## 1
Amino acid sequence: MKFSIRNRGILAAAILAGLFTPAVVHATNGYLVNGYGLKAQSLAGVGIAFPQDALAGANNPAGTAWVGDRIDFGVSWFMPRRGAAITGNAVPGASDSYDGNNKKHFLIPEFGYAKQLSNATSVGLAVYGYGGLNIDYARNPFAAFGSQGSAGVNLLQLSISPSAAWKPNEQHAFGAAANFIYQRFKARGLSAFDNPFFSAYPGSVNDRGVDTATGVGLRLGWIGQMTPELMLGATWVSKVSTTEFDKYKGLLAGAGNFDVPQTYGIGLAYKITPALTFATDIQEIKYGSVRGIAHPLSNFTVLGNQLGSPNGGGFGWKDITAAKFGISYAYSKDLTLRGGYSHNGNPIPADQNFFNIAAPAVVQDHLTLGATWKTGSGAELSATYIRAPRNTVNGKNSIPAAFGGGEANVYLEEHILGIAYGWKM
């Protein structure tokens, strides 16, 4: 099928929608999404060795070689529930429970295009929410420490990822993709920390409106058909060094640094029967290399490094590993059913909860269900439901004595409903 003017219009519209739709993604595996494309999300994010649609290149660029010519659109309705509690604190009025759900509903779009140029080469484009987080407190948890007004943090990360894949033979494919990242960030209600004592850049900590940052990285991947039943895959995504959030250089270490972490993983897909496939991925996410969130608060309270300085105190995030498992069952030629489970480490140590009242990305388990129905015209309608049960992390020596001591406890749970429409060209 030729890439007609109509196709170009669809592609341009999808890019513009992805760039300018005010979607927000909250934390799943930390603040990165569990998987890309609704079919992969129905399998708890599995997709490294199991390409299924035109967003396969977002999970592994080699997947572009296995899906043929197709277009996929999707949107997810995201419903997080999050909040915090402070206990045993000496500052009057601080110890209480705080609801972070002043905003409860978000829409997350996605788009994918794949085209086979020859028997050996394919290209694709994926536009999707890469990650992010949001919390919105009507009643400010930091008010007792001197902050004013409501409180909240909003982070959005969008990826535009063109990919190319090469199949030297029928058994193996190699892929590469650019990873263009666009980020938006906003913080408010943190005025208690916006002064020369706490910050190296007072006036650039709190309530500066929306700031943006951009960067580009690289994705590499391989998928091999080892036997008629077994596929293996591996992928690596480089760290993306983005521009700084200059408006918040007094909050984030490194004068507003918020790079996108390196990730890598391996995957397996095995056909137990012609209709039943088991698939699994193991993924590593290197949050500990992102200066803006990796430094612990003790860098300030113990070592004296102010917020925003090169070694400034912050959120104390660490690297995590995510294990994902999924089952796909072709119930009939028109209906495929899917389910999955994943578990990831918690990037936030219990002694770092105080600052992470503003970023409680602590869910660790995901249960998923989904299905795809082929219409009479050959198009595909997919749906998925994701449930991340509430996880509460109780602080352990989490509030420094300088802030009155005690503990900060944070929680998060998620519900996601998604639909997608795709077709082979």
## 2
Amino acid sequence: MKRRKFGLMAGSSLAALAGAASSSGVKPASAQTSNPDPSLLKTTLTPMGSERAGNADGSIPPWTGGVTAPPLGPNDPQDVPMFEDEAMLYKIDASNMAQYSGLLSDGVKLLMTKFGFWIRVFPTHRTHALPQYVYDNNALNVTRASLDPNGGRLGFNGAYGGTPFPIVNTDDPYVGGRS
């Protein structure tokens, strides 16, 4: 009986907070832009919705389609090292972490100073690839998927065989990942 009362109190508290958030001007999250363009998934975005281009300093290369040939035969082992001959670029530890402090979280810095934690850094590769039918479904999901009418609390409708909302709404910082 006590558990049920707590559940009712927690539920009513959450409902009150949701009402306060909507009356305070915070917009409910929308999954993607109002008129997303599916052709972006073939030009500036990957079929999964990330940027095709690499970054300015070249540490992240552009996506060029990923690994599309099966790396394993039917009787081969399941673990195939793809870049085993690659040399480490650098190692970050307590002695040089100040040089990379903008890339490290406070927790990682603490691990390095207190416990001797270190990170080996290797070149970045963008090997992600999926079957063509997933890419085709993602392009269709751009226009056919929608959040549940209850604001997405119960999921989404109309998305099949891929990512429901591959093009996120970057105009809304709560949805687009920006802060």
## 3
Amino acid sequence: MATDSCTRRHYRRVILKLSGEALEGELGYGIDPLVVKRLACDIRDVRESGIEVAIVIGGGNIWRGLEASTTGMDRATADYMGMLATLQNALALQDALEHLGTFTRVQTAIEMNQIAEPFIRRRAIRHMEKGRVVILAAGTGNPFFTTDTAAALRAAELGADVILAAKNQIDGVYDADPLTHPDATRYSVLSFQEVLERNLRVMDASAIALCRDNDVPIIVFNVQEDGNIQRAARGEDIGTLICSNPQAG
């Protein structure tokens, strides 16, 4: 029997969507080892609670392909460079997790056999079943697609129960930018259609549509607060839940 996607619960298998910016901390660029260690501790705790974890990681702390393309660089070339940046972040996170005793595998959508496995759906599932954290780099392997879309795609492919969309400065989805509008109201729950119609910019429209079509819920939450990854994965009432039919939840 299918489980209602609008009901929060202790999830069995999750996709954690981490932006590259989540790794830069106060540096404003690159990788802050202390921030990576803190994130790794939270991810380790999720895995040790029995939840299977795969992580889709961005590269915006090192390179942003879309921004580079606006300066005249070929968009495909800029996006491929961004994919390489995600692999650097994946290796940094892998190192931090394994220093904590958490077994991992890095899989990449672009083959780089000396440093990571190619993404193979069944192998990724088997790694998770064996208790390993799978870190997914290089997005979808295609230019013109964001790592948001990669997270939605991998969630559908791997049978994830939810996407945990980690944000750096906000604790959910608001009706206005809370950084510039202190009176903005945070939504507790939204439908995919509401997100698209209101252009709420939670994730890109392709990712939202893919989650809607495959009934994969999204929880948007603040990753900067220690323990929030585990709280979201356990189904606690934090952040904003985006699902197919909120009225049914």
## 4
Amino acid sequence: MTLAVAAALGGMASSAVAGGFAIGTQSGSGTGNAFAGGAAAADDASVAWYNPAAMTLIPGKQVAGALHVLKPSFKFQNTASTAAVGTGEGGDSGDWAFVPNAFFTMDINPNMRFGLALNAPFGLATEYDNGWRGQLKALKSEIISVNINPSVAYKVSDTVSIGAGFSVQKLEATLTKAANAAGTNIAELKADDVGYGFNLGLMIQAMPDTRIGVSYRSSIKYDLEGSVTFSATPAGNGGVRADLKVPDSASFSLFHIFNPKWELMGDITWTGWSTLQRFDAIRTTGAGEGTIVDSETFNWKDTWRYSIGANYKMSPQTKFRFGLAFDETPTNDVDRTPRLPDQDRTWIAFGLQYKPSKSGILDVGYAHEFFKDASVNNSQGAAGTLVGTFKNKADIFSIQYSHSF
């Protein structure tokens, strides 16, 4: 199962549906709650990702597999561009994406659990029509990640559990743009690396009906290596390297059983996107070795995400989920790029859980993201300036099956 899911993850294009280029959809059960209470809910084996300490609340063995179907939309509307290069708005640079993930938890002894998460924490896929007015800034941008995260949890007492894990994460990046005003020479940069990180978790049963979950996930540094190629001037081809650091994050979650029918939850998550200020690709071979062949200025800031959710138990087999979230963008109006025209977004989510058997749980969820308009004002050198606004939105469909043994 591990090899199959890892292979599937490696072949899937991903689209960012959380702040920056993070993928916020990491469990099918969480989608219907807009991922509120993720570090405290402990609904299924996906807690191996959200908070390893919460694995002590999942008895026996459980495996969960999810598929998320994402449809982001990024449409540029020109307002005052002075670019003497290309025509048109570039079309809708968002497209369908399919993101699978899987989770496993099991007992080691009465006080200790083991878990494994296989997922894609980061991703980006935008692609504009060739010849559009912003082709000197961006044509295709793609980031694909594959993460393997084993973890353990220990029950310190009847009310406190702790957990820890480590991640092995591969990141691949592909960036293309026009290298001349006519758009006849396309530059493509491809690079990848494997990085390592860790995560920590704490679960507190504060009261019989109330749980508190706290989790932390470290940043991961990549020393990307690859190549740059030019379609019309192969003499400029050569090796490149670039440094990239994905952010650390911390979550504080609450889960409360209000009465036999209703469950309430909330979450506050901080993400350290200020690690991403610039992206410089430096030549390692060929003409101009040691010089910058491509550069992106981000100047991103740290962000906060706030979410609330509720579950209604219609029967022992059926549960309805509801969620609302606000997700800040790390970008700004000065440095925002068409490679990722991100803005603040609001989530509205719904879901349904059905238990077809004593050991099986089926979850389906849907979320829609409403974006603020995202303005861009990017210099394209002597070719002028790209000035306009992006109208964005995103839809998320999730399905997950969990089985206990």
